[in-house]
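re: ur question from yesterday

yeah so i grabbed the chain u mentioned. its 243 aa long if i counted rite. heres the sequnce exactly as i have it in my notes:
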Amino acid sequence: MEYLLYFLATFILSTLFAMAGTGAGIALIPLLHLMGVPFNLSKAVGLFVGFTTTATSSVMNFKRSVLDVRFALPLAAGMLLCAPLGAQLTRFVDERAVKIIFVLFLLFSATMMLLFKKEAKAHFQQPWILALLGMGVGLLAGLLGVGGGNLLLPLLILLGYAPKKVAVAVSFVVPFAALGSFVSYATFVHMDYLLLFACAAGAIVGGYSGNYLMHFKLTPAQVKRVVAIILYILAIRMAVTLF
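ran it thru and got these structure tokens back, copy pasting raw so excuse formatting
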């Protein structure tokens, strides 16, 4: 029965987040933890779910030749190198401190969803900046157990890169960084593979449902407001357990 609840929770979140055009992993992690799943296991599940639901689009973007490889390569190298390191770092950082950072990340993501405007604030186009950005985002993403797209995408746009180009690159890089982090977590977290299967299945079905429903009833802007509110609620609920 509990795994059915995990499936349903993931299905509902994935449906809503797919309607908003984003992944549900960032909300799934705190929700699973609030439902009693250990924090590091929740992060591992979120990473696995993120990979299973985005890997296909990543490969398709590459095959369709819409990916700017020279742009994506420094990002990919930085994230693939540092995301697993960030996952290992969680073994040595106080869990309460990681949870506080996660709450701040939830608040940041919700606020970006509501207020972020796709306008450049600078014009830095050097590959080494992309590599450093990928390393920094990868390290934080691995520590928090998220894919990193919610942070990487607005930062790249602020640095002056075209939104469409950024979206394709992020969708290519993040799934593999998430897989690397998941494998890293698997080396020290006791995995519940039935939980992994239940959540992955819920995310896949919910993703298809959300993509179908996004053309009905609510506008994308309205859905994003709903998703942002969910993230705020999860952040507040998680913060309450800390203080």
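noticed a couple things. The first helix runs from residue 2 to 19. also The chain has one domain: 2-242.
anyway ttyl
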